[in-house]
């Protein structure tokens, strides 16, 4: 009796193990015997692309976007006490403008900015020419134009020029 129950269980398990693969039909991707599939041929894909591709002579070059003037509501001024941030900056950064206060501040702090490898941002820049002049003044450090309003509001930057290092904004 025990043997018959064991044999029935074995037949049942064998049917499940060996019968399931038979139930799943293969998905035909490419059949060299002539059977059609739902997968498009490479030639059909090439033809569809050629029909939708724009004429190379009709494409006009895009005019580059001029980011200037890059103005902000934050103005040059003197930062009274250092401002503490909730989080630390991973790398020191400085914010300057092309104004006289920023240029004097940069000259006084240039060696320190070089020593901490600070990244520079320029604000209130009205033209590409003004940005080039500022870049010459900041060399060998570099600065990129930055729209400061949103960052100034979130970080609590009341004025510039400033250095943001660690969790502190200072002049």
How would you characterize this protein structure?
- The structure is a single chain.
- The longest helix has 22 residues, at 2-23.
- A six-stranded mixed β-sheet has the order 2-8-7-3-4-5, covered by helices on one side. It has a two-stranded parallel sheet with strand order 1-6.
- The protein is elongated and about 80 Å long.
- The model has no long low-confidence stretch (mean pLDDT 80).
- 39% of the residues lie in helices and 14% in strands.
- It is of the alpha/beta class and 171 residues long.
- The protein has five helices and eight strands, in the order H-H-E-E-E-H-E-H-E-H-E-E-E.
What is this structure's SSE topology?
Elements: H1 2-23, H2 42-52, E1 75-76, E2 83-84, E3 93-96, H3 100-115, E4 119-122, H4 128-138, E5 143-145, H5 149-155, E6 159-160, E7 162-165, E8 168-170
Parallel strand pairs: 1-6, 3-4, 4-5
Antiparallel strand pairs: 2-8, 3-7, 7-8
Rg, rounded, reads 34 Å
Q: State the distance separating the first and last CA atoms.
A: 94 Å
Tally the helices.
5
What is the strand tally? 8
Question: Strand order across the biggest sheet?
Answer: 2-8-7-3-4-5
Secondary-structure-based class equals: alpha/beta
Instruction: Give the SSE order as H and E letters.
Output: HHEEEHEHEHEEE
- Shape estimate: elongated
Q: Major sheet: size, sense and barrel closure?
A: 6 strands, mixed
Strand coverage percent: 5-15%
- Provide the helix percentage: 25-40%
Low-confidence regions: none
Overall mean confidence score, pLDDT: 80
Oligomer: single chain
